[in-house]
Amino acid sequence: MAAKKRFKRIAVMTGGGDCPGLNAVIRAVTKTAISRYGAEVWGIEDGYLGLIENRMHPLAYDDVSNILTVGGTILGSCNKSNPFAFHVRSGKSVRKKDLSDLCLEHLRQHDIDAMICVGGDGTMASAAAFAKKGLPVMGVPKTIDNDVWGTDVTFGFNSAVTTATDAIDKVHTTASSHHRVMIVEVMGRYAGWIALYAGVAGGADVILLPEIPYELDKIADYVHARSQKGKRFSIIAVAEGAKPKGGKPFVAKVLKDSPDPIRLGGIGTTLADQLEKMTGRSCRAVVLGHVQRGGTPTALDRTLATQFGHHAIEMLMKGRINRLAVLKNGRQDSVPLSQVAGRIKTVPKNHPLIRAGKAVNTSFGV
Ligand code: F6P
Question: What is the CATH number of domain 9-155+297-340?
Protein backbone atom coordinates (compact mmCIF):
# COMPACT_ATOMS: atom_id res chain seq x y z
CA MET A 1 0.00 0.00 0.00
CA ALA A 2 1.30 3.46 -0.92
CA ALA A 3 1.78 6.24 1.62
CA LYS A 4 -1.15 8.64 2.06
CA LYS A 5 -1.07 11.18 -0.75
CA ARG A 6 -3.30 14.08 -1.69
CA PHE A 7 -4.71 13.14 -5.08
CA LYS A 8 -5.60 16.30 -6.97
CA ARG A 9 -6.80 15.10 -10.35
CA ILE A 10 -8.54 11.75 -10.73
CA ALA A 11 -9.69 10.07 -13.93
CA VAL A 12 -12.74 7.82 -14.12
CA MET A 13 -13.48 5.33 -16.88
CA THR A 14 -16.19 2.75 -17.62
CA GLY A 15 -14.98 -0.41 -19.38
CA GLY A 16 -16.49 -3.57 -20.83
CA GLY A 17 -20.17 -4.19 -21.55
CA ASP A 18 -22.40 -1.43 -20.18
CA CYS A 19 -25.09 -1.89 -17.54
CA PRO A 20 -27.59 0.18 -15.57
CA GLY A 21 -25.88 2.09 -12.73
CA LEU A 22 -22.68 3.22 -14.48
CA ASN A 23 -23.80 6.85 -14.46
CA ALA A 24 -24.65 6.58 -10.77
CA VAL A 25 -21.02 5.57 -10.10
CA ILE A 26 -19.63 8.40 -12.26
CA ARG A 27 -21.85 10.81 -10.33
CA ALA A 28 -20.81 9.46 -6.91
CA VAL A 29 -17.10 9.49 -7.78
CA THR A 30 -17.21 13.01 -9.21
CA LYS A 31 -19.36 14.58 -6.51
CA THR A 32 -17.43 12.93 -3.65
CA ALA A 33 -14.02 13.89 -5.10
CA ILE A 34 -15.03 17.50 -5.78
CA SER A 35 -17.14 18.30 -2.73
CA ARG A 36 -15.30 16.35 -0.04
CA TYR A 37 -11.71 16.59 -1.26
CA GLY A 38 -11.58 19.59 -3.63
CA ALA A 39 -10.12 17.28 -6.28
CA GLU A 40 -10.70 17.54 -10.02
CA VAL A 41 -12.24 14.67 -11.97
CA TRP A 42 -11.67 13.81 -15.62
CA GLY A 43 -13.74 11.38 -17.63
CA ILE A 44 -11.97 8.97 -20.00
CA GLU A 45 -14.10 8.32 -23.07
CA ASP A 46 -15.02 4.82 -24.31
CA GLY A 47 -13.18 2.82 -21.66
CA TYR A 48 -9.52 1.97 -22.20
CA LEU A 49 -9.88 2.91 -25.88
CA GLY A 50 -10.11 6.59 -24.89
CA LEU A 51 -7.04 6.18 -22.71
CA ILE A 52 -5.11 4.67 -25.63
CA GLU A 53 -6.32 7.43 -27.98
CA ASN A 54 -5.89 10.23 -25.41
CA ARG A 55 -9.59 11.13 -25.34
CA MET A 56 -10.54 12.48 -21.93
CA HIS A 57 -12.15 15.63 -20.58
CA PRO A 58 -12.83 17.40 -17.26
CA LEU A 59 -16.06 16.52 -15.47
CA ALA A 60 -17.55 19.43 -13.52
CA TYR A 61 -19.98 18.95 -10.64
CA ASP A 62 -22.91 19.99 -12.84
CA ASP A 63 -21.89 17.59 -15.61
CA VAL A 64 -22.94 14.71 -13.40
CA SER A 65 -26.24 16.17 -12.22
CA ASN A 66 -29.39 14.42 -13.40
CA ILE A 67 -27.64 11.23 -14.48
CA LEU A 68 -28.37 9.04 -11.44
CA THR A 69 -31.39 7.40 -13.05
CA VAL A 70 -30.08 7.25 -16.60
CA GLY A 71 -28.97 3.88 -18.03
CA GLY A 72 -25.77 3.41 -20.06
CA THR A 73 -22.71 5.59 -19.44
CA ILE A 74 -22.18 9.25 -20.32
CA LEU A 75 -18.49 8.38 -20.88
CA GLY A 76 -19.09 5.57 -23.37
CA SER A 77 -17.58 2.11 -23.06
CA CYS A 78 -15.68 -0.46 -25.10
CA ASN A 79 -15.15 -4.19 -24.57
CA LYS A 80 -12.44 -4.65 -27.20
CA SER A 81 -9.54 -2.54 -25.96
CA ASN A 82 -7.08 -4.22 -23.61
CA PRO A 83 -4.22 -1.64 -23.36
CA PHE A 84 -1.72 -4.41 -22.54
CA ALA A 85 -2.62 -6.47 -25.63
CA PHE A 86 -4.29 -4.05 -28.03
CA HIS A 87 -5.26 -5.54 -31.39
CA VAL A 88 -3.45 -3.57 -34.08
CA ARG A 89 -4.54 -4.35 -37.63
CA SER A 90 -2.16 -4.18 -40.57
CA GLY A 91 -3.75 -5.38 -43.79
CA LYS A 92 -5.41 -8.71 -43.08
CA SER A 93 -3.25 -9.60 -40.11
CA VAL A 94 -3.82 -8.51 -36.51
CA ARG A 95 -1.08 -8.37 -33.86
CA LYS A 96 -1.26 -7.59 -30.17
CA LYS A 97 0.66 -4.57 -28.89
CA ASP A 98 1.31 -3.39 -25.33
CA LEU A 99 0.20 0.26 -25.26
CA SER A 100 0.18 0.65 -21.49
CA ASP A 101 3.15 3.07 -21.44
CA LEU A 102 1.37 5.27 -23.97
CA CYS A 103 -1.69 5.27 -21.68
CA LEU A 104 0.42 6.31 -18.69
CA GLU A 105 1.98 9.07 -20.80
CA HIS A 106 -1.50 10.37 -21.70
CA LEU A 107 -2.45 10.49 -18.01
CA ARG A 108 0.81 12.33 -17.22
CA GLN A 109 0.10 14.88 -19.97
CA HIS A 110 -3.11 15.82 -18.15
CA ASP A 111 -1.54 15.70 -14.66
CA ILE A 112 -3.85 12.86 -13.66
CA ASP A 113 -2.51 11.08 -10.61
CA ALA A 114 -5.05 8.28 -10.03
CA MET A 115 -7.64 6.35 -12.01
CA ILE A 116 -11.01 4.86 -11.02
CA CYS A 117 -11.82 1.86 -13.24
CA VAL A 118 -15.46 0.83 -13.32
CA GLY A 119 -15.78 -2.56 -14.95
CA GLY A 120 -15.85 -6.32 -14.86
CA ASP A 121 -13.11 -8.94 -14.82
CA GLY A 122 -11.39 -7.79 -18.02
CA THR A 123 -11.29 -4.15 -16.92
CA MET A 124 -10.00 -5.19 -13.49
CA ALA A 125 -7.22 -7.32 -14.99
CA SER A 126 -5.89 -4.24 -16.83
CA ALA A 127 -6.49 -2.06 -13.74
CA ALA A 128 -4.33 -4.45 -11.69
CA ALA A 129 -1.63 -4.35 -14.37
CA PHE A 130 -1.63 -0.52 -14.35
CA ALA A 131 -1.36 -0.61 -10.55
CA LYS A 132 1.67 -2.88 -10.92
CA LYS A 133 3.24 -0.21 -13.13
CA GLY A 134 2.88 2.36 -10.34
CA LEU A 135 -0.40 4.11 -11.19
CA PRO A 136 -2.73 4.40 -8.18
CA VAL A 137 -5.93 2.66 -9.28
CA MET A 138 -9.27 1.90 -7.65
CA GLY A 139 -11.80 -0.59 -9.00
CA VAL A 140 -15.61 -0.55 -8.89
CA PRO A 141 -17.31 -3.88 -9.73
CA LYS A 142 -19.78 -3.59 -12.60
CA THR A 143 -21.66 -6.15 -14.66
CA ILE A 144 -25.09 -7.59 -15.17
CA ASP A 145 -23.42 -11.02 -14.95
CA ASN A 146 -22.56 -10.65 -11.21
CA ASP A 147 -19.40 -12.68 -11.86
CA VAL A 148 -16.71 -10.33 -10.46
CA TRP A 149 -14.65 -12.22 -7.92
CA GLY A 150 -14.38 -10.79 -4.39
CA THR A 151 -17.77 -9.08 -4.08
CA ASP A 152 -21.14 -10.48 -2.98
CA VAL A 153 -22.76 -8.53 -5.77
CA THR A 154 -22.02 -6.18 -8.66
CA PHE A 155 -24.20 -3.22 -9.58
CA GLY A 156 -26.21 -3.80 -12.77
CA PHE A 157 -27.11 -7.32 -11.74
CA ASN A 158 -30.33 -6.40 -9.94
CA SER A 159 -31.57 -4.33 -12.91
CA ALA A 160 -30.88 -7.22 -15.31
CA VAL A 161 -32.64 -9.69 -13.00
CA THR A 162 -35.62 -7.34 -12.77
CA THR A 163 -35.84 -7.11 -16.57
CA ALA A 164 -35.44 -10.88 -17.00
CA THR A 165 -38.05 -11.58 -14.31
CA ASP A 166 -40.50 -9.24 -16.02
CA ALA A 167 -39.93 -11.12 -19.29
CA ILE A 168 -40.52 -14.49 -17.61
CA ASP A 169 -43.73 -13.13 -16.04
CA LYS A 170 -44.96 -11.99 -19.44
CA VAL A 171 -44.06 -15.25 -21.14
CA HIS A 172 -46.01 -17.13 -18.44
CA THR A 173 -49.41 -15.94 -19.61
CA THR A 174 -48.84 -16.69 -23.28
CA ALA A 175 -47.31 -20.09 -22.41
CA SER A 176 -50.42 -20.85 -20.40
CA SER A 177 -52.83 -19.73 -23.15
CA HIS A 178 -51.10 -21.83 -25.82
CA HIS A 179 -50.11 -24.77 -23.60
CA ARG A 180 -46.52 -24.32 -24.69
CA VAL A 181 -43.03 -24.77 -23.40
CA MET A 182 -41.49 -21.28 -23.38
CA ILE A 183 -37.73 -21.00 -23.07
CA VAL A 184 -36.22 -17.70 -21.95
CA GLU A 185 -32.49 -17.37 -22.67
CA VAL A 186 -30.72 -14.85 -20.45
CA MET A 187 -27.17 -13.46 -20.44
CA GLY A 188 -24.47 -14.05 -17.84
CA ARG A 189 -21.48 -15.53 -19.73
CA TYR A 190 -20.06 -18.49 -17.81
CA ALA A 191 -22.02 -17.77 -14.62
CA GLY A 192 -25.68 -18.57 -14.03
CA TRP A 193 -26.52 -15.76 -11.61
CA ILE A 194 -29.12 -14.02 -13.82
CA ALA A 195 -30.82 -17.31 -14.77
CA LEU A 196 -30.91 -18.46 -11.15
CA TYR A 197 -32.31 -15.25 -9.65
CA ALA A 198 -34.72 -14.40 -12.48
CA GLY A 199 -35.72 -18.06 -12.78
CA VAL A 200 -36.61 -18.35 -9.10
CA ALA A 201 -38.24 -14.90 -9.01
CA GLY A 202 -40.30 -15.68 -12.13
CA GLY A 203 -41.29 -19.15 -10.93
CA ALA A 204 -39.60 -20.92 -13.87
CA ASP A 205 -40.28 -24.67 -13.85
CA VAL A 206 -36.79 -25.48 -15.13
CA ILE A 207 -33.63 -23.43 -14.55
CA LEU A 208 -30.48 -24.30 -16.48
CA LEU A 209 -27.13 -22.95 -15.31
CA PRO A 210 -23.58 -23.31 -16.67
CA GLU A 211 -22.58 -24.62 -13.25
CA ILE A 212 -25.00 -27.60 -13.46
CA PRO A 213 -24.70 -29.30 -16.89
CA TYR A 214 -28.16 -30.53 -17.86
CA GLU A 215 -29.54 -33.83 -19.19
CA LEU A 216 -32.05 -33.29 -21.98
CA ASP A 217 -34.14 -36.36 -21.22
CA LYS A 218 -34.53 -35.20 -17.60
CA ILE A 219 -35.96 -31.90 -18.84
CA ALA A 220 -38.30 -33.70 -21.27
CA ASP A 221 -39.43 -36.09 -18.50
CA TYR A 222 -40.10 -33.14 -16.19
CA VAL A 223 -42.21 -31.33 -18.83
CA HIS A 224 -44.10 -34.57 -19.49
CA ALA A 225 -44.68 -35.17 -15.76
CA ARG A 226 -46.10 -31.67 -15.42
CA SER A 227 -48.56 -32.24 -18.25
CA GLN A 228 -49.61 -35.55 -16.67
CA LYS A 229 -50.55 -33.49 -13.61
CA GLY A 230 -52.64 -31.15 -15.75
CA LYS A 231 -50.03 -28.40 -16.05
CA ARG A 232 -50.12 -27.92 -19.78
CA PHE A 233 -47.30 -25.41 -20.04
CA SER A 234 -43.75 -25.09 -18.76
CA ILE A 235 -41.30 -22.19 -18.46
CA ILE A 236 -37.58 -22.78 -18.81
CA ALA A 237 -35.06 -20.10 -17.80
CA VAL A 238 -31.71 -20.88 -19.41
CA ALA A 239 -28.39 -19.12 -19.00
CA GLU A 240 -26.59 -18.43 -22.29
CA GLY A 241 -23.61 -20.34 -20.88
CA ALA A 242 -25.55 -23.48 -19.89
CA LYS A 243 -24.35 -26.72 -21.46
CA PRO A 244 -25.45 -30.36 -21.69
CA LYS A 245 -23.70 -32.90 -19.52
CA GLY A 246 -20.42 -33.78 -21.22
CA GLY A 247 -20.95 -30.98 -23.77
CA LYS A 248 -19.80 -27.43 -24.36
CA PRO A 249 -21.54 -24.04 -24.13
CA PHE A 250 -23.22 -22.71 -27.29
CA VAL A 251 -21.11 -20.14 -29.12
CA ALA A 252 -22.95 -17.45 -31.12
CA LYS A 253 -19.86 -15.80 -32.57
CA VAL A 254 -16.12 -15.38 -32.15
CA LEU A 255 -14.80 -11.82 -32.23
CA LYS A 256 -11.13 -12.05 -33.13
CA ASP A 257 -10.39 -8.47 -32.09
CA SER A 258 -11.83 -8.85 -28.59
CA PRO A 259 -9.76 -9.77 -25.51
CA ASP A 260 -12.65 -12.09 -24.58
CA PRO A 261 -13.54 -13.31 -28.10
CA ILE A 262 -16.33 -15.83 -27.38
CA ARG A 263 -19.90 -14.53 -27.47
CA LEU A 264 -22.27 -17.14 -26.11
CA GLY A 265 -25.82 -17.69 -27.35
CA GLY A 266 -28.13 -20.02 -29.23
CA ILE A 267 -28.98 -22.53 -26.55
CA GLY A 268 -32.60 -21.32 -26.31
CA THR A 269 -33.57 -22.10 -29.91
CA THR A 270 -31.65 -25.40 -29.91
CA LEU A 271 -33.45 -26.50 -26.75
CA ALA A 272 -36.82 -25.48 -28.22
CA ASP A 273 -36.19 -27.65 -31.31
CA GLN A 274 -34.94 -30.60 -29.28
CA LEU A 275 -37.75 -30.49 -26.70
CA GLU A 276 -40.45 -30.05 -29.35
CA LYS A 277 -39.28 -33.32 -30.96
CA MET A 278 -38.94 -35.14 -27.64
CA THR A 279 -42.16 -34.00 -25.97
CA GLY A 280 -44.45 -33.42 -28.96
CA ARG A 281 -45.39 -30.09 -27.39
CA SER A 282 -45.11 -26.72 -29.04
CA CYS A 283 -41.91 -24.98 -27.84
CA ARG A 284 -40.77 -21.39 -28.39
CA ALA A 285 -37.59 -19.58 -27.42
CA VAL A 286 -37.17 -15.93 -26.41
CA VAL A 287 -33.64 -14.50 -26.34
CA LEU A 288 -33.53 -11.45 -24.07
CA GLY A 289 -30.05 -10.29 -25.10
CA HIS A 290 -29.01 -6.68 -24.61
CA VAL A 291 -32.42 -5.62 -23.29
CA GLN A 292 -31.02 -6.84 -19.97
CA ARG A 293 -28.25 -4.23 -20.13
CA GLY A 294 -30.56 -1.29 -20.86
CA GLY A 295 -32.98 0.99 -19.10
CA THR A 296 -32.98 2.85 -15.85
CA PRO A 297 -31.18 1.20 -12.90
CA THR A 298 -33.31 -0.25 -10.12
CA ALA A 299 -33.29 1.50 -6.74
CA LEU A 300 -30.96 -1.23 -5.44
CA ASP A 301 -28.44 -0.66 -8.24
CA ARG A 302 -28.58 3.13 -7.80
CA THR A 303 -27.76 2.79 -4.11
CA LEU A 304 -25.10 0.13 -4.67
CA ALA A 305 -23.44 2.18 -7.42
CA THR A 306 -23.47 5.30 -5.25
CA GLN A 307 -22.00 3.39 -2.31
CA PHE A 308 -19.25 1.78 -4.44
CA GLY A 309 -18.32 5.09 -6.14
CA HIS A 310 -18.13 6.93 -2.83
CA HIS A 311 -16.16 4.11 -1.20
CA ALA A 312 -13.60 4.05 -4.04
CA ILE A 313 -12.82 7.75 -3.55
CA GLU A 314 -12.70 7.47 0.25
CA MET A 315 -10.25 4.55 0.03
CA LEU A 316 -8.11 6.37 -2.52
CA MET A 317 -7.90 9.51 -0.39
CA LYS A 318 -6.99 7.41 2.66
CA GLY A 319 -4.14 5.80 0.70
CA ARG A 320 -5.81 2.38 0.46
CA ILE A 321 -4.98 2.20 -3.23
CA ASN A 322 -5.06 -0.56 -5.86
CA ARG A 323 -8.17 -2.13 -4.39
CA LEU A 324 -11.63 -3.08 -5.59
CA ALA A 325 -14.60 -1.69 -3.64
CA VAL A 326 -16.78 -4.66 -2.69
CA LEU A 327 -19.65 -5.83 -0.53
CA LYS A 328 -18.62 -8.79 1.61
CA ASN A 329 -21.29 -10.49 3.71
CA GLY A 330 -23.39 -7.40 3.06
CA ARG A 331 -20.76 -5.00 4.44
CA GLN A 332 -18.71 -2.40 2.58
CA ASP A 333 -15.17 -3.74 2.15
CA SER A 334 -12.36 -3.98 -0.40
CA VAL A 335 -10.00 -6.56 -1.90
CA PRO A 336 -6.64 -6.08 -3.66
CA LEU A 337 -7.02 -5.74 -7.44
CA SER A 338 -4.20 -8.24 -7.84
CA GLN A 339 -6.43 -10.91 -6.28
CA VAL A 340 -9.36 -10.17 -8.60
CA ALA A 341 -7.51 -10.31 -11.92
CA GLY A 342 -8.06 -13.50 -13.92
CA ARG A 343 -10.82 -14.90 -11.70
CA ILE A 344 -14.59 -15.06 -11.97
CA LYS A 345 -17.27 -15.83 -9.41
CA THR A 346 -19.65 -18.58 -10.50
CA VAL A 347 -22.74 -19.96 -8.71
CA PRO A 348 -21.79 -22.55 -6.06
CA LYS A 349 -23.72 -25.79 -6.57
CA ASN A 350 -24.97 -25.61 -2.97
CA HIS A 351 -26.15 -21.99 -3.25
CA PRO A 352 -29.16 -21.39 -0.93
CA LEU A 353 -31.31 -20.31 -3.87
CA ILE A 354 -30.62 -23.61 -5.67
CA ARG A 355 -31.62 -25.48 -2.53
CA ALA A 356 -34.77 -23.34 -2.18
CA GLY A 357 -35.58 -23.87 -5.87
CA LYS A 358 -35.27 -27.62 -5.50
CA ALA A 359 -37.51 -27.48 -2.43
CA VAL A 360 -40.30 -25.92 -4.49
CA ASN A 361 -39.80 -28.60 -7.15
CA THR A 362 -37.95 -26.51 -9.70
CA SER A 363 -35.90 -28.74 -11.99
CA PHE A 364 -32.26 -27.89 -12.63
CA GLY A 365 -32.18 -30.31 -15.54
CA VAL A 366 -30.48 -33.18 -13.71
O1 F6P B 1 -20.73 -9.18 -19.72
C2 F6P B 1 -21.96 -8.63 -20.07
C3 F6P B 1 -22.53 -9.33 -21.27
O4 F6P B 1 -23.79 -8.76 -21.58
C5 F6P B 1 -22.66 -10.84 -21.16
O6 F6P B 1 -23.74 -11.25 -20.36
C7 F6P B 1 -22.75 -11.24 -22.61
O8 F6P B 1 -22.34 -12.57 -22.79
C9 F6P B 1 -21.83 -10.27 -23.29
O10 F6P B 1 -21.69 -9.16 -22.41
C11 F6P B 1 -22.30 -9.77 -24.62
O12 F6P B 1 -21.29 -9.00 -25.19
P13 F6P B 1 -21.51 -8.00 -26.41
O14 F6P B 1 -22.06 -6.72 -25.86
O15 F6P B 1 -20.15 -7.83 -26.99
O16 F6P B 1 -22.48 -8.64 -27.35
Answer: 3.40.50.450
